[in-house]
Design a protein that fits this description.
Elements (H helix, E strand, L loop, with lengths): L2 H9 L24 E2 L2 E10 L2 E8 L5 E8 L6 H16 L8 E6 L5 E6 L4 E2 H7 L4 H20 L2 E2 L8 E6 L2 E6 L6 E2 L22 H4 L8 H19 L11 H11 L12 H8 L3 H10 L11 H12 L11 H11 L1 H57 L1
Antiparallel strand pairs: 1-2, 2-3, 3-4, 4-6, 5-6, 7-9, 8-11, 9-10
Helix pairs in contact: 3-6, 4-6, 4-10, 6-7, 6-9, 7-8, 9-10
Length: about 400
């Protein structure tokens, strides 16, 4: 097939559904379940917000599958929202990672509404998943590592998410293991020329509870990938709190409060805030110290003190999973030695047993040597005593013979 024919074939919608584009309600806000949008049939609304409406839909042609369709209804159209919507579509088109929901299709409907169809993730938000499943610290670290790698994939393509939070990280079970998917790049910005959505002066996009200081109060330095690292730290800190049974209050908490609690559990906080309680501190101490240190480093107020990339945070999580030293702990000698012992526990135990056996053998040999030396000394003393006795008796006998 010639290239021109291939392009035409790729962009032409199925003839059996072509007429459905002209049968749409005048206002896209009036769409309902059962409505056809070209090759898609709407099933139910999944969510609605300022940046659009998300529907679960069936794709009928050329493939049959469930998809999520995000629509920007005509009533919500304005130059700024259209720019953000277009940035999100283009962002997803650049991304191909196991931990990011994939885009399938995009376009503009006859009534002027923008849309794109993407992978439907039959999961739940991260915090709900943790409440529904009893995960180990290792499983949580593994899950968070996957999320960090997904974020790093976006950063490598010059995209900053700006709204990483549990609600935008859906988790499903795949092959018996939790699989996270980052969604909603609706307020993402690009860092390359021509890819950035405008940032209005004094306006901060995102969810305040997960926002870094530089994102909350935009300044001349702007934001970079480390702003997303801060959000990842807030997400991880929340996961650790939920694991030990501490209610974070979801959207009502502050990331600074989570950081202070973790610092206090490590004896780093200068003073306990009014909201703190000793029970929470005790619970936080049950979290492996290295994991607390990782969350604290990612949540550093100064971006220069955070991980320099999401990949670096993922690497520290992997180091902990492999029982190796993590950067966030600082690398003290005793800590490094403890990690070595934990990683090579069996070999260390076997080596220790051999050393102990050798020590016991040496001690027994020394003890035997000492006993032999004492016995020899005793024998020599008795011999000397006997000789002295003989000499005495012979001398006494000689005196009597005179």
């Amino acid at each position: 097939m010639p290239a021109s024919d291939a392009d035409t074939h790729h962009h032409t919608r199925p003839a059996t559904l072509a007429d459905d584009w002209g049968q749409l309600p005048a206002n896209s806000a009036d769409w309902a379940a059962g409505q056809r949008l070209g090759p898609y049939v709407l099933k139910r609304q999944l969510g609605k917000g300022g940046m659009g409406v998300v529907w679960l839909a069936d794709q009928l042609q050329p493939l049959k599958r469930e998809v999520a369709i995000k629509l920007l209804p005509r009533g919500q159209n304005n130059p700024l929202t259209e720019i953000y919507f277009e940035v999100e579509r283009q962002a997803l088109a650049q991304l191909s990672h196991r931990s990011i929901a994939q885009i399938y299709d995009a376009g503009r409907l006859p009534d002027g509404a923008l849309f794109f169809a993407m992978e439907y993730v039959p999961g739940v938000p991260l915090d709900e998943f943790l409440e529904q499943h009893e995960l180990s610290f290792a499983a949580i670290a593994t899950l968070m590592r996957q999320i960090c790698l997904g974020a790093h994939h976006a950063h490598q393509r010059a995209l900053i998410h700006r709204d990483l939070k549990p609600l935008n990280i859906l988790v499903q079970m795949a092959d018996g293991q939790p699989l996270p998917k980052i969604i909603d790049f609706g307020v993402a910005i690009g860092t390359l020329p021509g890819t950035a959505a405008p940032i209005r002066a004094g306006k901060a996009a995102g969810t305040p509870a997960y926002m870094s200081p530089e994102q909350k109060n935009p300044g001349p330095g702007g934001i970079d990938a480390r702003s997303d690292v801060y959000a990842l730290g807030a997400v991880f800190a929340e996961c650790l709190h939920l694991k030990v049974g501490i209610d974070t209050g979801h959207d009502h908490f502050e990331s600074t409060t989570l950081r202070e609690g973790l610092e206090r559990s490590r004896g780093q906080a200068a003073a306990a805030p009014a909201r703190s309680n000793e029970t929470d501190t005790v619970r936080l101490r049950s979290i492996p110290e290295a994991l607390r240190a990782i969350a604290i480093k990612a949540l550093a107020p100064d971006r220069d003190d955070r991980y320099d990339s999401a990949a670096a945070m993922a690497d520290d999580l992997d180091q902990w999973l492999q029982k190796r030293p993590v950067r966030a702990m600082g690398g003290g000698r005793w800590y490094v030695a403890r990690c070595f012992v934990n990683r090579y526990r069996l070999a260390t135990a076997a080596s220790a047993a051999i050393v102990i056996a050798l020590l016991i053998g040496v001690l027994m040999a020394l003890h035997g040597q000492n006993q032999a030396r004492d016995a020899q000394a005793l024998a020599e003393k008795r011999r000397d005593d006997a000789e002295q006795l003989v000499q005495f008796m012979l001398g006494d006998f000689a005196d009597k013979l005179r």
